[in-house]
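Record type: monomer structure entry
Structure origin: computed from sequence
Chain ID: A
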Amino acid sequence: MFSLHIRGHLYPAVEELLERLASRRGEIAADMLATLWREVPSYATGRRDLLSQCSDHIDAFLITARTGHVPRGPAVEFVKQVGGRGARDGVELEVLLRCYRTNATTLTHWVGEQASATTAEGLRAALAVTRMVMEYTDNVSSALADAFVHESHRLLAEAGSLQRDLLEDLLAGRTGVGTASQARAAGLTSRGALQVAVAAASDLPEAVGAVDHQFRMARVSGIRVARHDELVIVAPADASVRHLLGRAGASTPLTAGISLPLNGWDEIARGHREARRALALAPPGHVLRLADLTLFDYLLAGADDTARRLGVPGVDGLSAPLRSTLVAYAASDLNVGATARRLHLHPNTVHYRLGQVERLTGRDVRNFADMVELVAALRLASS
């Protein structure tokens, strides 16, 4: 790997430089720590073992540099442990790799500081060891990334299995000690307000990935499980589930429905039914919250063909101006003057149009019950 340092006339200068670096191990580690705090504070914050990690990093490099082989043994095991631990701690891979690049920069600085720059051999040794730092960093970064991805996949599979079992228990109303413990670990409390969302997509695995990414970035706790042909989400009621599903849908088309707020675990089964109902009512590619519907809208949305047959005769024959006037009249609390202002018409025109509606439908537009039937029939005829 490091062929330059084993040439006879260069090896002594390289070995001397490595010895100098080893003798300053504590100072280099402290410098690495300070640089990480400055350059990657998101990783450094709260890590009491970071100085030890920096020391181990230096030792692993020195072992690799002296042997001249591709990093293996302790050097590789050390970075694999860092990668696996990072995945378990929820650290992003890019952050871990940035730490290694930052450490490489610090170590390269120390190589220059400790090199004998007054001789040609000293300069060549500095170049050789600098190349060692770069090649070592490239190799161990690959090992770290592989370990991180492997552990991430294992954690996802394990979490998916546990969450799937938890969801089935909650949907079935099983809330024993074990279920309660798992639910709390997922961030769901027995008496806290919750919400359930159900999403569907033509490419469900891709949609699951997009949704999971949005929820992880927003640090939203709860349950996300691909179940049959749908993605089921249980989250705290204050989480911006509709917004996050909308963002996921921007990259992967999906349709979703969200339940009304729930009061704890024992209402999750009901929330699931509500979310599926909202999904059935949602326009393709949209996210619909039941809370955004009025009772009137919800009842009309669930109307069947019989309800349409029970509609007011003559509504189908109303022209567009008569329909718009009727809707505006209802929205204006049956006030002709307010309707005229809303539509920018003369009140006599409004009176005339409403008279036409009464003539064609046989209903009295001044009667509340008749108006409810007229508006409902009009809505059903338009759906």
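Annotation 1: Residues 1-5 have pLDDT under 50 and may be disordered.
Annotation 2: The radius of gyration is 34 Å.
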